[in-house]
Amino acid sequence: MNKVFLSGNLTRDPEVKYTPAGKAMAKMGIAVSRRSKNAETGQYDVDFFNLTAWEKTAEFCGRYLRKGSRVFVEGNMRTYSYTGQDGSKRSGIDIWIDNIEFGSSKREGDAPATTTDNNTNTRPAPPSNDGFDDDFVGDEISDDSVPF
């Protein structure tokens, strides 16, 4: 079974591109701290991974996530190889995202309302209403009707 669970902070803004067939793909990086501290420095060791998201997940990442965003990722590892410009063979590992959830960012209060990426497309900041739809219309729930 090839299943990966990571919790960390994005190291760069998601870069969303589209295939010729119109399929969205987002590339980003994540920094993940290890549980143990480095004996020499007293700091936690950090591992860095490349993340790849596809289709709606890719569009979600491009729209709502930024460098420094705290994320929880579920996915699988994919290996790849290529020949470098100097002719040497190289390989790497990407984590393909199956599911991603975001937590708080390192600088949650510092996030602007919108940001502009390199293609001058503006992206809205993440919703401040914990993901609930403002258009939801339903019966009001009283404290007495909640069982806990």
Spell out the helices and strands N to C: EEEEHEEEE
Global mean pLDDT:
78
Characterize the main sheet: 5 strands, mixed, barrel
The tally of domains stands at 1
Using only C-alpha atoms, the radius of gyration works out to 19 Å
CATH 4th-level superfamily: Nucleic acid-binding proteins
Q: Provide the β-strand percentage band.
A: over 45%
C-alpha geometry: globular
How helical, in percent, are the residues? under 10%
Across the major sheet, the strand order is 1-3-4-6-5
| Structural category | mainly beta
What order do the helices and strands come in, and which of them pair?
Blueprint: E1 4-10, E2 15-18, E3 24-37, E4 44-54, H1 55-64, E5 70-83, E6 89-102, E7 114-116, E8 122-124
Parallel strand pairs: 4-6
Antiparallel strand pairs: 1-3, 1-5, 2-3, 3-4, 5-6, 7-8
Structure, described:
The protein is mainly β. The protein has a single domain, classed as Beta Barrel (OB fold (Dihydrolipoamide Acetyltransferase, E2P)), CATH 2.40.50.140. It is built from one helix and eight strands; from the N terminus they run E-E-E-E-H-E-E-E-E. It has one helix spanning 55-64, and strands at residues 4-10, 15-18, 24-37, 44-54, 70-83, 89-102, 114-116, 122-124. It has a five-stranded mixed barrel with strand order 1-3-4-6-5. A two-stranded antiparallel sheet has the order 7-8. The longest helix is centred in the middle third of the chain and has 10 residues, at 55-64. The chain is globular. The protein starts with a strand and ends in a 24-residue tail after the last strand. 16% of the residues are buried. The model is unreliable at 108-141 (pLDDT under 50).
